């Protein structure tokens, strides 16, 4: 939550390429070539440009960590749909240099430090 519209725009706009990392639970096991496809960019339905390269880390066959540098509409879900899978759970772990505190309960928040605010340029 912020009242700084410019700062918010920097972290949410696809044009600013702010990295975001998600923990993703999938309906089906991730295919062996998905990480390679994501690293090259994926063609999303009804879009002319490929996604920017993304980094996929397989944790279990149905749970992965995905880092993207855009913020297109429902991008993570659409990327997995493009490779024939379905996202059943999605949790953002990091945005820019700001990592979600593991000790915060759902719905809780904390103020950002000056360093965290400055880390999102």
Radius of gyration: 15 Å
Q: What proportion strand? A: 15-25%
Number of strands: 5
Helix/strand/pairing class, anyone?
A: alpha+beta
Q: Mean of residue pLDDT?
A: 91
Strand arrangement, major sheet: 2-3-1-4-5
Oligomer: single chain
Q: State the shape.
A: globular
Q: Cα distance, first to last residue?
A: 17 Å
CATH class reads: Alpha Beta
**String of helices and strands:** HEHEEHEEH
Uncertain residue segments: none
- CATH homologous superfamily heading: Pseudouridine synthase
Instruction: Give the tally of structural domains.
Output: 1
CATH topology call: Pseudouridine synthase
Count of alpha and pi helical runs: 4
Largest sheet: 5 strands, antiparallel
Helical residue percent? 10-25%
- What is the CATH architecture assignment? 2-Layer Sandwich
Function: Responsible for synthesis of pseudouridine from uracil-516 in 16S ribosomal RNA.
Pfam families: PseudoU_synth_2
Organism: Escherichia coli
GO biological process, one term: enzyme-directed rRNA pseudouridine synthesis
Please render the helix and strand layout as text.
Elements lengths: L4 H8 L7 E7 L7 H7 L14 E6 L2 E6 L6 H8 L4 E9 L2 E2 L14 H6 L2
Antiparallel strand pairs: 1-3, 1-4, 2-3, 4-5
What does this structure look like?
This protein is α+β, with helices and mostly antiparallel strands. 24% of the residues lie in helices and 25% in strands. It has one domain: Pseudouridine synthase, CATH 3.30.2350.10. It has 4 helices and 5 strands; from the N terminus they run H-E-H-E-E-H-E-E-H. A 5-stranded antiparallel sheet has the order 2-3-1-4-5. The model has no long low-confidence stretch (mean pLDDT 91).
